[in-house]
Amino acid sequence: MKINSQLVLLTALLLLASCAPLRPLAPEPPKGYTRYEPTVTIRKAKERSLEDPNYEQRELQNITGITAWDNVLSPWLGTPYLLGGNTKEGTDCSGFVSSVYMEKERMPIPRTSAEEFEKGKYVAKNDLIIGDLVFFGNRFRVSHVGIYVGKGNFIHASTSKGVTVSPLDDSYWKPRYMGARRYL
């Protein structure tokens, strides 16, 4: 009798296990993933680009004012933030910077912001030129990187806005500025 009850219990467990899905029904978002919603400006630009095919090309050519840089940087605008990403489907800050440098200059640079800060050539803030890397963090470690695009602005992969242009003197970024490095 004891063997029969154990057999029934084992059979019931096997039936229940066979009904359970092998994987979750909806995939879990990657750790650190922030869903990106385009800003009103980006949505309007995309709407206008449908009406006027030359609109996006005209508007997005003026990130730096240098065609070679703008042609590489413009397609990245609005790319969602994705921790560990380095494509236009999703990117983090150091993945964005290393991908841009590889695309524009065919130059491999380190993959993490801390390594990029360590390896580049020091540049004073008042000597920044387009293409220099700017770094942010706290007194103890670098945690963010972007590319200087001129006129006191930098382009970077923001966790909240995706790839965007921000001023160095922004109330959030200014106190976190740690320095700049040149690779070109």
Give a description of the structure.
This protein has 184 residues and is of the alpha+beta class. It is 34% helix and 21% strand. The protein contains 6 helices and 8 strands, in the order ααααββααββββββ. It has helices spanning 2-19, 40-51, 55-60, 67-73, 93-105, 113-119, and strands spanning 86-87, 90-91, 121-123, 133-137, 142-150, 153-158, 162-167, 177-182. The N and C termini lie far apart (81 Å). Mean pLDDT is 81; it is low at 20-26, 33-45 and 54-59.
Short description:
With 184 residues, this protein is an alpha+beta fold.
**What's the total number of strands?**
8
Q: Shape from CA axes? A: elongated
**Main sheet makeup:** 6 strands, antiparallel
Distance between the termini: 81 Å
Number of helices: 6
**Assigned CATH architecture:** Alpha-Beta Complex
Strand content: 15-25%
Major beta sheet, strand line-up:
3-8-4-5-6-7
| Average of per-residue pLDDT values | 81
- What's the alpha carbon Rg, rounded to whole Å? 24 Å
Element pattern in H and E: HHHHEEHHEEEEEE
How many structural units, i.e. domains? 1
Please estimate the helix content.
Answer: 25-40%
Structural class by secondary-structure content: alpha+beta
CATH homologous superfamily - what is it? endopeptidase domain like (from Nostoc punctiforme)
List low-pLDDT spans: 20-26, 33-45, 54-59
What's the CATH class label?
Alpha Beta
Kindly report the CATH topology.
endopeptidase fold (from Nostoc punctiforme)
